[in-house]
Design a protein that fits this description.
Helices cover 41% and strands 13% of the residues. Strands 6-5-4-3-2-1-8-7 form an eight-stranded parallel beta sheet. α1 crosses α2, α2 runs parallel beside α3 and α4 packs parallel to α5. The protein binds 6-hydroxymethylpterin-diphosphate. 6-hydroxymethylpterin-diphosphate (HH2) binds next to β1 and β5.
């Protein structure tokens, strides 16, 4: 059984703690929904400020797109993009660094990040050494090829068991603050994603705090296009309702941290879920 040293927020009138929000800040030219918008550090910092004002608890700063098919970039480019932004955002709020590289994680923590958001779930010992929080995400394969033929026997059990093993090891290494994240869209078909969303309570039941990121993802584009009878996916900017619905669905099952682009809408959902006024 996992346990968190992250203090829960007080339960609202509906008896649930207020879920925390991780606001997405992609300092990249090519992220699937906000690529190119925040490459300029001033614009990136202004967006972080706006998300904090809207109720984000942590700003998740990433310098490499990991959307399906994305080409990896070199660590120096990743660092050049994120370090100046992390330094400034860490002065006004809590920062997570969204990276899969150890060197980048180390330099980001030196610049002020206090959480490593790790899509490879492999940097737990680094988080332990640096004394920071760690989000362990499940991914099958690598971003370039992960959507070619994702295969599972029992996707919920496999993802859960993988994450619990990684979380237990990181706790033994000394990480206090750990979240497990099923990694929606990372080496998963629509059916895999829906099975994980519908059975998120199986992850919550492990006792490890659960983080979830469905915001604007193509699983929503696929579902919404289907309900319209359209052939093509709806574009990321038209996925707000699906993003809020899936975030809410996750919160109702007990997710404690939700990674979102649209902080204001997610904050409203979180307040309703908690019964917070
Ligand atoms: N999804 C993305 C990136 N990082 N981290 C966690 N813990 N969970 C997620 O679901 C997750 C993540 C992908 O989304 P985004 O950063 O918006 O796009 P891109 O990879 O194109 O930059």
């Amino acid at each position: 059984m996992g346990s968190s040293t992250v203090p829960p927020t007080d339960p609202g009138q509906l008896g649930r703690p207020l879920p925390r929000l991780l606001g997405v800040l992609n300092v990249t030219p090519d992220s699937f929904s906000d690529g190119g918008r925040y490459l300029d550090p001033d614009r990136a910092v202004a967006h972080a400020e706006a998300m904090l004002a809207e109720g984000a608890d942590i700003i998740d700063i990433g310098g490499e797109s990991t959307r399906p098919g994305a080409d990896p970039i070199d660590p120096d480019t990743e660092l050049d993009r994120i370090i100046p932004v992390i330094e400034r955002v860490a002065a006004i709020g809590r920062v997570a660094v969204d990276t899969r590289r150890e060197r980048v994680a180390r330099e980001a923590v030196a610049a002020g990040a206090t959480v490593i958001n790790d899509i490879t779930a492999s940097l737990g010992s680094v988080a332990a050494e640096l004394g920071v929080g760690w989000i362990a995400m499940h991914m099958q394969g690598q971003p370039q090829t992960m959507q070619q033929r994702p295969t599972y026997g029992d996707v919920v059990a496999e993802v859960r068991d993988f994450l619990v093993a990684r979380a237990e090891r990181a706790r033994a290494d000394g990480v206090d603050e750990i979240w497990i994240d099923p990694g929606f869209g990372f080496g998963k078909t629509l059916e895999h994603n829906l099975a994980l969303l519908a059975n998120l309570d199986a992850l919550v039941a492990t006792g490890w705090p659960v983080a979830v990121g469905t915001s604007r993802k193509s699983m929503l584009g696929q579902l919404i296009a289907r309900s319209d009878g359209a052939d093509q996916q709806t574009p990321p900017e038209d996925r707000l309702v699906g993003s809020v619905v899936t975030a809410t669905y996750a919160m109702l099952q007990g997710a404690e941290l939700v990674r979102v682009h649209d902080v204001k809408a997610a904050r409203q959902a979180a307040m309703v879920v908690a019964g917070e006024s």
